[in-house]
Amino acid sequence: MKISVASDHAGYDLKNHILAYLSENQIAYNDLGTNGNDSVDYPDYALKVASLVSKGALERGILICGTGVGMSIAANKYPGVRAALCHNIETAEASRRHNDANILVLGGRILDHAVALSILKTWLETPFDGGRHQRRLDKITAIEQETTRGKPLSKQVEKSPISP
User: Fold this and answer.
1) Annotated catalytic, 133?
2) Which of 28, 39, 120, 163 is deepest in the core (most CB within 10 A)?
3) Torsion of CA 16, 71, 107, 130, to 10 degrees
4) What homologous superfamily does CATH list for 2-129?
């Protein structure tokens, strides 16, 4: 598996720790920037990784910004991208088992580096469970396909039991 990693300035320090971990564990990666602490715009770096995942040119990616929220929002605009913002091992595991997350998003300003590496390790090692979770991903794919054709959401999305 080859992984592309990108961050904005707020995630730069954590990105370097992650790259060191990947190197130490002989996991192939591409560093798509940023390359310093100078202020940059996170959507530019989310695009670099998310576009590759969306096109199928890349199996997985890692994005890091200050909180992880901005990168998550930007990356999830791309069809086929399931970017998961993870704050602990439990969310990392669930994002892979239940959601087949293909981009891990971390908050460089809110996570201790050791915790971030534990999250990364869990995310990399956890398989997708499939089964009932695949049915749910298929519904997400249907939503993406319908909305990217410029059509409003319709019968492909079931009404929530708590909807009015």
Assistant:
1) no
2) 120
3) -100
4) Sugar-phosphate isomerase, RpiB/LacA/LacB (3.40.1400.10)
